[in-house]
Amino acid sequence: MADHSEEPLDPEQLAAYFAVMEVAGLLRHGVEEQLRDEGDLSFVQFQLLAVLGLDSPAGSRSMTELADRIVFSRSGLTYQAGLLEKAGLVSRAPAAHDERGVTVSITAEGRERLERVLPGHVDVVRSLFLSALPAQGSAALTELLAPVRDHMRSQPPRSRTPRRRRGSSRP
Amino acid sequence: MADHSEEPLDPEQLAAYFAVMEVAGLLRHGVEEQLRDEGDLSFVQFQLLAVLGLDSPAGSRSMTELADRIVFSRSGLTYQAGLLEKAGLVSRAPAAHDERGVTVSITAEGRERLERVLPGHVDVVRSLFLSALPAQGSAALTELLAPVRDHMRSQPPRSRTPRRRRGSSRP
DNA sequence: CGTTGATGCTTCGAATTCGAAACAACTATG
DNA sequence: CATAGTTGTTTCGAATTCGAAGCATCAACG
Q1: In terms of CA atoms, which chain B residue is nearest residue A69?
Q2: Is the CB of B63 under 7 A from strand C?
Q3: Is any Cβ of chain B less than 8 angstroms from the Cβ of A29?
Q4: pLDDT attached to residue B160
């Protein structure tokens, strides 16, 4: 089990790995503070509103799409969607063609809240993150990371317990 | 309060921001699974052992250094350090010159555990992250992100409640 | 050396997070 | 259309996380 290639990472690769994790962590903290202070939102809640409001066809997504997009557990999403719904920022309704599914939609109030925090949010991202990037830095970053993201997304879709393999494995 | 520059981020910058956050999130999930399965460690615990074992002068750091480095709350660190100590992977002792401080050191057992999970950890990072980077990708990434990290680190040191400003502000 | 404020860490209670198990609706198969 | 397996979501209890408040020590200053 778990046969590992003995090769350690060279320091350069380790550094890249740690840099990504650390930058994301620091950025998240900075952003969380602003969101809490100015919009009474957690980062996850903001992400949900942002994905729904800024990057969804009709302001709607299925729970699974959201969980995979925002990157965390489905059960956690159920919880947060419940909070947002209670706050009137999103609504939930059974999915169109699949009775099991739930479609989450951002409400007008949700859009308001999003608009309210966005400027400050952008400020924080700018001052913490973008200001330390060189001229074409953000483009270069995206070019490097987008394929990585896509690659990872295509892997075991995250948040999905592989409840059992299809055919193989022992009875 | 909170005067915001109205300028929105251009899409390119937004994309970079989201890409970093998403890659870090996905990578963290992947890595967490492996650490849990093969080493019975949370990601935070692994980070603590890694910083102590691989990037600390004598395998020791103060609580504050660790909290700032690993990026999370001081109280959370107290909790995790407690768990690691109970598991015998680190030890805690009052700091040398400051009676208030606590110095955390990795134990032999801690190093063992670290060695045990490292190969699998490296495999995951490689297959999830590095494999999707082009040739000089990791170097380029580090070059871009290292200044960002340093910039952020120099900001309000994280995890430090600014309990009150020095002179200014109202009484 | 006493006072006042700053700093390092821990305790506390509340909120969030997770994975596993439970449910329910779908889908292929026979 | 009954059956068995799959998939979308929620429930559950346990573990982790947080920020605020609390404690103890340090440092500056009179």
Answers
A1: B22
A2: yes
A3: yes
A4: 47
